[in-house]
Amino acid sequence: MSNQKLIKEYLGIISEIQAEIKKLENDTRVLNKLYVILDVLHDEPIPYIVEKHGISQGTVYNWIREWNEGGMEGLKRKKGSKGQSKLTDEQLILLDEIIQEENLQTAREVKDKIEKEFEVKYSIRSIERIMKKLGYSYTKPYKIYAKMPADAEEQLKKTLDI
């Protein structure tokens, strides 16, 4: 492949594309909800609807409630619930580089770095989501028991080999 760019880029193109994708995703969500409402109107059994659409029974009843309370508008995303990131795509790329350069290990460290570098506040849960979006895995720490024998790992390995 040549070094020639395949797509003409300009400032903000990534943000623009992602905003358009978000709009279409929202339209798809409403469409899925309408299919469920249509199935309910056709007296399909709830267990059948759950299996057909791959959603939970609670979700079906939530969408029915939204429909009953607001019709078509009730199924659409509410104003102010955009859930958009406070960081731009460029800032996320920079954050990824910072995490790698400074070998940040915990969500708390990343949270502090975001507040210092970008002056944006997030909850720890939001930081975990951002880290997952950037491709970092999150595991909960495990307990090390004080009464555990020093050779516990070796004992476990022996037991598993048997």
TrEMBL record:
Keyword Coiled coil (UniProt): yes
Superkingdom of source: Archaea
Keyword Coiled coil: yes
Residue ranges of coiled coil: 7-34
Keywords, comma-separated and alphabetical: Coiled coil
Protein name: Putative transposase
Organism of this sequence: Methanobrevibacter gottschalkii DSM 11977
